[in-house]
Design a protein that fits this description.
- The structure holds three protein chains of three kinds.
- Chain A is mainly α.
- Chain A has a single domain, classed as ABC transporter involved in vitamin B12 uptake, BtuC (Orthogonal Bundle), CATH 1.10.3470.
- Chain A is built from 15 helices and two strands.
- In chain A, β1 and β2 form a beta hairpin.
- Chain A is globular, with a radius of gyration of 22 Å.
- Chain A starts with 15 loop residues before the first helix and ends in a 14-residue tail after the last helix.
- By secondary structure, chain B is mainly alpha-helical.
- Chain B has a domain of about 220 residues.
- Chain B contains 15 helices and two strands.
- In chain B, strands 1-2 form a two-stranded antiparallel ribbon.
- In chain B, α12 crosses α13 and α13 runs antiparallel to α14.
- Chain B is globular, with a radius of gyration of 21 Å.
- Chain C is of the alpha/beta class.
- In chain C, strands 7-6-8-9-10-13-14 form a seven-stranded mixed β-sheet, with helices on both faces. A three-stranded parallel β-sheet of chain C has the order 2-1-3.
- In chain C, β1, α2 and β2 form a beta-alpha-beta unit.
- In chain C, α12 packs across α13.
- Chain C is globular, with a radius of gyration of 22 Å.
- Classes of the chains: A mainly alpha, B mainly alpha, C alpha/beta.
- Chains in contact: A-B, A-C, B-C.
- The interface between B and C is large, with 76 and 65 residues.
Chain lengths: ~350, ~350, ~450
């Protein structure tokens, strides 16, 4: 979008970031001042005590940040599925959560039927491909050129359908993820640092690595392949892409299939951390603040957003949660995202929203 | 043939600008009201009234509320359920604090609390747009739901954290609590919904409604035309949350009758109401009714209706089939008419107007 | 504007109302029993084995004995997906079909049904779940909560902790953590634990888990690591439990100090932890395994004839047996009601009398092939729960075992709380129906 370049020269105070920083600094300064004056009051508990805790038990701080990092990566993975589809087809895919469950259930279900683990992975990918083709044929093609909100609604229909289908095929029983058969490591690495013990789960390390590799591969794929270029073209403008001979239908199948692959990997990782059941669908909602924070159209945004949300909510819950009864994790992420959005309404890396009359 | 306005002349501007300018529409409306007031309580049994009609009315009202925000003003909200919750908890707090006050008044007043909270969370809408605005309303959704569980004052320090709806009388007849008959509760819901629909219809057809629609179509252009965005958008949030709050209070007091209220107002309900608005038709009051019937009542009717009609389905299988059918129906309807059931309805009326000689 | 569609809706509604929703006429010699089940949704993992157990025991009674007292039981499941809205629909449906007892199978559904049931005169059997205060039969004549309440469970947890530490006086200065689902079900034990903490001088730490974060408990377990509680009580359900077990192992929390409420004792819950979950504990009210004549009869008459929905290897698992236990209570109450009234086909009102004077003795348990499966339970006019004994089950890596004895809950702690809360509940409800039902003598 060339309009971005035509920005007016940056005015010092007009820059949202600097303004945000100044306001934040002012708030923090007054608060710390207030806290210093009253060492037993609420302000002390909010602004001084958590940091003292951090300093006194650095191992727990490291552990918290690590937990945040891992969940951040996993949130980013879910968000990635959304971003891919949103970029290429402008569809906000409500069904991503159920696709995670569906792919993981297919994998485990096939393995239960006696299919070897890796063959089951390949077959699951096949199923996800068929699903992508079906969605493109049945849902997207007839709805081409409809407003975004209609396509959003259609993905809700897909969700309902997949819930019904998944439960009637696989049943509602929770299943164990076949982590061992897929060579996923078990156990933990215990690091004795900072006068304490920091325990890193091998599965978490694996998740972080696999997610990073996945993201790198996708980035390369988008950047350097023919299909990747076509995808970017479609993301920019459907009509322009069509006019240079890019097949929208084909691109959509590819994108939904890629989202399916991402869903499968997400399902394996979350499944290995707890188990595979329809409750996993709820986890997908965690991707919403990530998406909004990172911007709907940006892959790096999904990653950075995921990390900010993951680490932010874990630190918030651990150090500040007990002050108001705990359980604040459920909404903290949204407030973090909201805070960022007030200064950057299109998300951290989203395309700038340009409005013309 | 029967639906034709030939021969109906308007001699005043007012008559011409009426919401229902055609006589047949007015007759139709009267017939519907007649059925709603007399027919349904007469024929329907308790199950039909409590599990199909009351939920339908409650969801219609919530959908109208969201339609004002999303359909008329173009602001997406995923926090409707939380605003409904505010209404429910406000009504509960008020009726336990002032047991003597008429419950209907309290249900309506509880909407005001919801409106206030709605305005608060609507403030970011001035800066954030589109799907991004969803985050502000999602923050409301999750924060308020957390508060419903975690602030014991809201549920009067009940050991289970549940709301128990006390019995309240209206003209000596119990309207809330367990001894209220389904018919009474139905009539109260019906009257509230009719009055509030009428109010909403006047609102959206008037100056305020037009300013909302201008904002929806393009807010910068609307601003240039002299519409104050701040007032228009916040008013939309306030009115929408008011409707949601009243619907929420109705839901707990006239339908659920108490229980695990915090869990009722979850994100799923928010999504469902948004989907009612979309599939019913954005920017259409009648669409809100269609949407509520489709998303809320259809699964219930299929679940209990199909086995009773002799389709051998039971338990979990019925649930799966219902899910798949509803999902497929949503997609089919969207493909047939992406602008919602309300548009389908309009097309039908147009066809009927020229029938049997379409040329 | 709205004419024909709504007319159609109304016509359809009328049709449905008149024709299809009307209570189907059952043959005279049958008893209709509607049970809520959730074989779908996020809690299906716990709901399926329970539903299977309930269904199979009733089927077995029908197949083996031809029903209760010669009357067949018509058993119907209503799918709720653990959703309160659907549960309410199921209640209305059960009412329309004249069920003799309503079995809500979720605390939320129980809470919503309690006021209605007292007007509609349908007994509620919420077996070891639901509103603890409803154990007060004087205020809640239509609600039954055998064999004990969540409050009894919480007191049992404290008792278990004391027993392991070597006496009630050793509790002083210890730390008990409560992980709970952030919903009425999960918060139920808090008042009792708070009272006991004050009385015995231990510290209570509370860790709520929002339903959306059931499978995402990372920060909660970090807090547990920081606070280092001596024991953890897990009031969890569904996907929350396997995640808690896995997280406990991950965070090196001693697994034998983690005790679940009886609903956290699913085989799938413990199995998720792998071999390291050995030693995970859970309060229990029924024995696991198939080594009981009643369960063997189920295998013989139901499972082997292909009439069960449960896979063969799941029969005898803990939650399956829990379902069997619940159905046993229903069947015994029916039998009792038949005996009391002399009628064969009983009504909901007869069933209430049957439940109120239910007395399951050791001898009776032996007769029905459940010796050692559960403990005797007596329900009385005032005490609708019985405050029966429970034991602490232990996961041995493959199955649930019973290493210790049956423990009695701290009734003297729980009972006053129940009475106070029941009074509070009925006072607030305004015009709560006064008990008019005469007391039954225990049979």
């Amino acid at each position: 979008m060339s309009d971005v370049a035509a920005r007016p020269a940056p005015n010092f105070l007009a820059n949202g970031w600097i303004k945000a920083g100044l306001i934040l600094a002012a708030i923090v300064a007054t608060a710390i001042l207030g806290a210093r004056l009253d060492t037993s009051g609420t302000l002390y508990k909010i602004f001084i005590d958590p940091f003292e805790q951090m300093a006194s038990a650095p191992d727990l701080l490291v552990q918290t940040v690590w937990e945040g990092l891992v969940s951040g990566v996993l949130y980013a993975l879910i968000a990635l599925g959304f971003v891919l589809i949103f970029k290429a087809s402008g569809v906000f895919n409500f069904a991503q959560g159920i696709m995670v469950v569906f792919s993981a259930l297919t994998l485990v279900g096939l393995h239960e039927k006696g299919v070897p683990a890796w063959l089951a992975v390949i077959l699951t990918l096949g199923v996800m491909f068929v699903l992508a083709v079906a969605i493109e044929r049945v849902v997207l093609r007839p709805l081409v050129n409809q407003p975004d909100i209609i396509l959003f609604m259609a993905t809700f229909g897909i969700t309902y359908f997949l819930i019904g289908l998944g439960e009637s095929v696989f049943g509602g029983n929770p299943k164990q993820m076949i982590a061992d058969q897929l060579w996923l490591p078990k156990g933990a690495v215990d690091l004795k640092i900072l006068g304490g013990l920091v325990s890193l789960q091998k599965i978490d390390i694996a998740a972080a690595i696999i997610a990073s590799v996945m993201i790198a591969v996708l980035a390369l794929f988008f950047q350097y392949t023919r299909i990747g270029r076509a995808l970017r073209a479609v993301a920019d403008s459907h009509k322009a892409a069509l006019s240079v001979g890019i097949s929208l239908n084909q691109i959509w199948v590819i994108v939904w299939f890629t989202a399916g692959i991402v869903a499968l990997i997400t399902g394996i990782m979350w499944g290995a951390r707890s188990d595979v059941s329809f409750a996993l669908e709820i986890v997908a909602l965690k991707a919403l603040p990530v998406l909004i924070l990172g911007g709907f159209t940006s892959i790096p945004g999904a990653i950075i957003g995921g990390l900010i949300i993951g680490i932010g909510e874990k630190l918030g819950e651990f150090y500040w949660g007990p002050l108001i009864g705990g359980g604040i994790e459920s909404w903290l992420a949204y407030f973090i995202a909201l805070g960022f959005l007030l200064f950057r309404p299109q998300g951290l890396f989203g395309d700038k929203i340009i409005e013309r009359i | 043939m029967f639906y034709r306005e030939a021969g109906q002349f308007k001699s005043t501007y007012q008559a011409d600008m009426a919401v229902f300018p055609i006589r047949q529409d007015r007759i139709g409306l009267a017939v519907i009201l007649l059925i709603a007031f007399i027919g349904i309580p007469l024929i329907g049994n308790d199950f039909f009234i409590t599990s199909v009609m009351i939920p339908f009315l409650v969801f219609s009202l919530a959908a109208i509320g969201l339609n004002i925000l999303t359909g008329y003003t173009g602001l997406i909200s995923l926090g409707t359920a939380a605003f409904m919750g505010v209404g429910a908890y406000a009504a509960y707090k008020m009726t336990t604090a002032f047991p003597g006050v008429n419950i209907i008044v309290l249900i309506l007043v509880s909407g005001l609390f919801s409106a206030a909270i709605g305005v608060l969370f609507g403030l970011p809408s001035l800066r954030i747009k589109g799907f991004y605005l969803a985050v502000a309303t999602l923050a409301a959704q999750f924060f308020l739901q957390w508060a419903f569980v975690r602030v014991p004052w809201l549920f009067n320090y009940n050991a289970s954290g549940a709301i128990e709806v006390p019995q309240r009388l209206l003209f000596g007849i119990p309207v809330t609590g367990a001894s209220a008959s389904p018919e009474t509760r139905y009539y109260v819901c019906l009257c509230l919904v009719i009055v509030m629909t009428w109010f909403a219809s006047n609102l959206v057809h008037g100056k305020i409604g037009r300013s909302w629609m201008a904002v929806r179509d393009m807010d910068i252009a609307a601003e240039l035309m002299g519409i104050k965005l701040l007032t228009a958008k916040l008013l939309a949030f306030a009115v929408s949350s008011f409707y949601a709050g009243v619907a929420g209070a109705m839901m707990i007091f006239l339908w659920y009758g108490g229980g695990e209220a915090a869990d009722v107002f979850n994100i799923r309900l928010s999504f469902n109401i948004l989907f009612m608005v979309i599939i019913g038709g954005l920017g259409s009051l009648i669409g809100s009714f269609f949407g509520a019937a489709f998303i809320a009542s259809l699964p219930t009717i299929m679940k209990f209706g199909l086995p009773a009609l002799g389709v051998p389905l039971s338990g979990a299988t019925a649930e799966h089939v219902t899910f798949m059918l509803v999902g497929a129906l949503i997609i089919v309807f969207l493909i047939v008419e992406p602008h919602g059931l309300a548009r389908l309805w309009q097309i039908g009326k147009q066809k009927l107007r020229t029938w049997p000689f379409p040329y | 504007m709205k004419t024909s569609h709504l007319m159609k809706t109304a016509a359809l509604g009328a049709l449905l109302a008149a024709g299809t929703f009307a209570a189907p006429a059952f043959a005279q010699d049958s008893i209709y029993f509607a049970n809520n089940a959730y074989r779908t949704g996020p809690f299906a993992g716990s709901g399926i084995p329970i539903g299977d157990g309930m269904r199979d025991y009733i089927t077995m009674i029908n197949e083996r004995d031809g029903g209760v007292g010669g009357v067949r039981i018509v058993y119907e499941e209503c799918e709720t997906g653990y959703d309160t809205k659907k549960s309410i629909e199921c209640y209305e449906q059960a009412k329309a079909k004249n069920t003799i007892v309503y079995s809500p199978w979720s605390t939320g559904a129980t809470l919503a049904a309690i006021p209605r049931a007292h007007i509609d005169k349908i007994p509620i059997l919420s077996m070891a779940y639901g509103l603890s205060a409803s154990a007060d039969g004087t205020s809640f004549p239509w609600v039954f909560i055998p064999p004990f309440t969540y409050w009894d469970g919480a007191s049992l947890m404290v008792k278990h902790m004391a027993a392991e530490l070597g006496g009630m006086d050793k509790l002083k200065g210890k730390k008990l953590g409560l992980i709970h689902l952030d919903a009425p079900f999960g918060k139920e034990p808090i008042p009792v634990l708070e009272n006991l903490a004050k009385k015995y001088g231990f510290e209570l730490k509370i860790y709520p888990v929002a339903a959306a974060d059931m499978q995402n408990q990372g920060s909660l377990w970090l807090s547990i690591r920081r606070d280092r509680p001596d024991y953890l009580y897990n009031q969890g359900w569904g996907a929350m439990n396997p995640t808690a077990v896995k997280e406990a192992i991950k965070n090196n929390f001693p697994i034998n100090k983690l005790v679940g409420v009886w609903w956290a004792g699913g085989d799938d819950d413990a199995r998720a932890g792998g071999p390291e979950a050995k030693g995970y504990k859970s309060l229990n009210l029924n024995a696991a395994g198939t080594n009981f004549p009643a369960i063997q009869d189920i295998q013989k008459y139901v499972v082997e004839k292909g009439k069960s929905l449960a896979p063969k290897e799941k029969v005898g698992e803990n939650l399956y047996n829990r379902g069997v236990y619940n159905s046993m209570l229903v069947v015994e109450a029916m039998r009792n009601a038949q005996k009391l009234t002399g009628k064969k086909v009983i009504t909901a009102e007869d069933m209430r009398r049957g439940l109120e004077s239910l007395n399951i003795t050791e001898a009776r348990l032996k007769e029905i092939g459940m010796e050692g499966f559960a403990t005797p339970t007596t329900i009385s006019c005032t005490d609708h729960s019985g405050h029966s004994k429970a034991y602490v089950a232990e996961w041995d890596g493959t199955k649930w075992t019973k290493p210790g004895e049956w423990l009695e809950p701290l009734k003297e702690e729980v009972r006053p709380l129940i009475e106070a809360n029941a009074k509070d509940y009925t006072d607030k409800a305004g015009n709560w129906p006064k008990r008019v039902e005469p007391c039954e003598k225990s049979s």
